[in-house]
Amino acid sequence: MQLVDDRGCLICGADNPIGLQVHFTVDGGRCSAHLVLPELVQGWRQVAHGGVVSALLDEAMFYALAEEGWRGMTAQMTVRFLKPVPLGVELSLTAERIQLHRRLGRAKSRLCHGEEILAEAEGTFLARRQEG
Question: For residues 59 and 68, what is the distance between their CA atoms, to the nearest angstrom?
Answer without folding.
Answer: 15
